[in-house]
User: Fold this.
Amino acid sequence: MLDAICVLTTEAAAEHASSPLRLNPNAQTGVTYSVFKFQLLPEAEIEHLRQHLYCPACYGKAYFRKASKDGKAACFGSRYHEHDCIEFNPSAQKSREEQDALEVQQQLLDADALVIDFSLNPSNKRPSNSALNVNARQEQEVGAKNKTAHDTEPLESVQEPKADYQVAVDKPEIAIMAKRTPSQGLEKLLHSLLRGSDLAKSDLWVYTDDERKYRWRAKNLFVNFADADPTDNKPHLYWGTLSHCDPLMTWLNPADSKDIGIPIEVVKTKLFKQFNITDKRDLEGAGIILFGKCFWNKDKTRKIIQLWDNDLRRIFISTLED
Assistant:
């Protein structure tokens, strides 16, 4: 489990409030903790609260296990789940996403930096790189001739602004860093964000290129759609969930913000093939992360997030499994 409810009895709450070991003035009865937050509490507070944890779904008595020396992540669990509890019988997708979140969270705690591997294949089957490049030029030419209803144009030969990253120029240090810096693909990064990891708030350095030349603070790189700012003129890894698409399936609409659109007409055919999308319903409620830039449409009535160079390696869509 990634979450647990802490329910203190009246007596325990009073004891907690008056205890000299109480280090969190905001602690109260009926608080839901994520395992990521709980493991960062002071040791004395963890020891006090761990006996008052319950499953958030069936309220069975729960426990907290610390991270192990052999690399196992901290977690909540319970041996008292109801037989029909979703935490006791989670879907395969939920289990996979939670495991991804735990893996990324552990990397945040253990690593000095993280490299984003945009070429890493996700768990769902994808066509080969050669297949993704078939007719790419033709598709881009068609997209360039057919502007969308919002009168937006794709970015052309954009580069990451130097104000947003540091450039590593010492090649020997880069080689050493490569040996001890873990890499991660967009799929697990997205799942960790959706499941509440601290990635979007972390000071961890994140490299966005294979040569480890450009690095960003994670808190500056990962931006939820709700916080997208078209005036900052900087690329980010935008993430969140999708509400729906337009009738022609050429625009994606994030659920996190009503005034944002993601144009996909130029890459629609390959994108849908890559993520096995055959119907509008496949996009409803799906998680999404993409590297791109946010800007206003001409009338400044809608924010547009453009996929960087229309590069399909820089986007991942996590559809819901029926």
